[in-house]
Write a structure and sequence with these properties.
The chain has strands spanning 2-7, 10-13, 18-26, 30-39, 46-52, 57-59, 67-72, 77-82, 91-100, 108-111, 115-120. By secondary structure, it is mostly beta strands.
Length: 121
């Protein structure tokens, strides 16, 4: 089994910053990519940012220039630095990892439990 544990959410005023962390542990052979998604009340889950094992990144248009995703492969950890936060960024942020648990197996999606980010105006 693979576990993802997020941390770093909280309440912040508009214009402020937060840094999220997500650590993967368990039966991990390799991680192909990690990323962050978010889901606001009444809305569908949406991609925020992803990073591949090779370091390629992808961002939602709404966060480009404000959020930065990074990773530490030695720690199986991904980070999301969020700057210039707005109330529209309020959501539960979920960590995702595409993990291979064996050398011959496919990569499967694993999810964290989510961390709440609330931005007040």
């Amino acid at each position: 089994q693979v576990q993802l544990v997020e941390s770093g959410g909280g309440l912040v005023q508009a214009g402020g910053s937060l840094r999220l962390s997500c650590a993967a542990s368990g039966s991990i052979f390799s991680i192909n990519a990690m990323g962050w998604y978010r889901q606001a009340p009444g809305k569908q889950r949406e991609l925020v940012a992803t990073i591949t094992r090779g370091g390629s990144t992808n961002y939602a248009d709404s966060v480009k220039g404000r959020f930065t995703i990074s990773s530490d492969s030695a720690k199986n950890t991904v980070y999301l630095q969020m700057n210039s936060l707005t109330p529209e960024d309020t959501a539960v942020y979920l960590c995702n990892a595409k993990v291979r648990t064996t050398s011959w197996g496919l990569a499967y999606d694993y999810w964290g439990q989510g961390t709440q980010v609330t931005v007040s105006s």
